[in-house]
Amino acid sequence: MNQAGKSDRAKRALLIVDVQNDFCQGGALGVKDGDNVVPVINSIIDKFDIVISSQDWHPEESIHFRKWPPHCIAGTHGADFHPGLKSDKISLKLRKGTDNVDDGYSAFEATNVSLAGFLQENEISTLYICGLTTDYCVKTTALDAVNLGFHTYVITDAIKPVNVRPGDDKRALDEMYLNGCILVESDHLPA
């Protein structure tokens, strides 16, 4: 303990990106093996001081749907968290992509709360990121976290890619690593 009575261990948060029905098997924009991130996330969720999750929360009409099929429309089953995810452990739910001209890839673009502000207010300096998808929302969120000065880890066995182009996942991991993200597997997380 330090003089202020606080633990010397830096507070850390788990950020679960978009583990929603529409990004999993059978969803409107289902990611191959997207469901496989759920048991990995559930196995580590209790290791964190704070658990945060982002959700795509699109309006019915959006320019985002020029690039992608309609998905995660606000209030629909597709926008709900995967039913197997321990969502009761989530203390903050971020909603992004809520405007009809907003892609909302990064969790830092949430419209219902400032993620950066929340992390700073709660003295969280280290962020562990997992979820869907490696090459879009996970990557954009991780790069934003690094750029904002957070120690950023990406849990590689708890992410899955869209892979619009073959190899997008590898390129995304390389980009995150080269920009300062630490790539780690779930069984190598610090206690």
UniProtKB/TrEMBL annotation:
Enzyme Commission designation: 3.5.1.19
Metal-binding found in the keyword field: yes
Q: What is this protein called?
A: nicotinamidase
Q: Which family does it belong to?
A: Belongs to the isochorismatase family.
* Transmembrane residue ranges: none
Domain Isochorismatase-like intervals: 13-185
Q: Name one GO molecular function term.
A: metal ion binding
What is the top-level taxon of the source organism? Bacteria
Would the keyword Hydrolase turn up in this protein's UniProt record?
Answer: yes
Among SUPFAM superfamilies, the record links this protein to:
Isochorismatase-like hydrolases (SSF52499)
Alphabetically sorted, this entry's keywords are:
Hydrolase, Metal-binding, Pyridine nucleotide biosynthesis
Give a GO biological-process term: pyridine nucleotide biosynthetic process
